[in-house]
Amino acid sequence: MNKLKSLTLEQLIPKVLQAVLNISLIFLAIILSVLLVQELFIFGQILLQKENNDYKLFLANILLFFLYFEFITMIVKYFKEDYHFPLRYFLYIGITAMIRLIIVDHDHPINTLLYSLVILILIIGYFIMNITPRERPDSRRFFKN
Asked: What PANTHER family does its record include (predicted)?
């Protein structure tokens, strides 16, 4: 309690906002986990239906499952990496979402081509991110007078 009294307003506001963000992300992770389990039940129903052989529906549901999975993984990484979202997870999610769009909405060739180009751009971005050195120069040295 004594620690809270010694905090200034500029120090307290970010701590409160960080706590609100953390609690919100925990609730989001719980909701996504419920949806992930629900998607597993949908898989089971699709597999047990003898008359329904719609592989596109099954593939779309698998990719939706991976989208939930990747968002949950990203939230876990957020907490493990000291409140930081790794950029590569956003790229994974974007690629998976675009693949799902191609599978679900492939009636228009122009749209499919555009989705494919978006995937290519995301993969190029991922490649550039991986060849860039992890250690960044200290940005403060660039702002010295």
From this structure: PROTEIN PSIE (PTHR37819:SF1)
pTM above 0.85, yes or no: no
What token pair was written down for 142?
């660039």
Chain position carrying tokens 């500029």: 10
pLDDT at residue 143 in the model: 47
3-state secondary structure the chain: CHHHHHCCHHHHHHHHHHHHHHHHHHHHHHHHHHHHHHHHHHHHHHHHCCCCCCHHHHHHHHHHHHHHHHHHHHHHHHHHCCCCCCHHHHHHHHHHHHHHHHHHCCCCHHHHHHHHHHHHHHHHHHHHHHHCCCCCCCHHHHHCC
Blockwise average pLDDT, block size 10, the chain, 145 residues: 66 90 95 93 80 74 86 90 84 89 85 94 93 65 47
User: Tokens 């599978």 sit at which residue?
Assistant: 103
Classify residue 1 by its DSSP letter: -
Q: Give the relative orientation of helices 87-104 and 55-80 as an angle to the nearest 10 degrees.
A: 170
Single-letter residue type at 127: F
In sequence order, what are the residues at sequence separation of 6 or more whose Cβ sits closer than 8 angstroms to the Cβ of residue 101?
A: 115
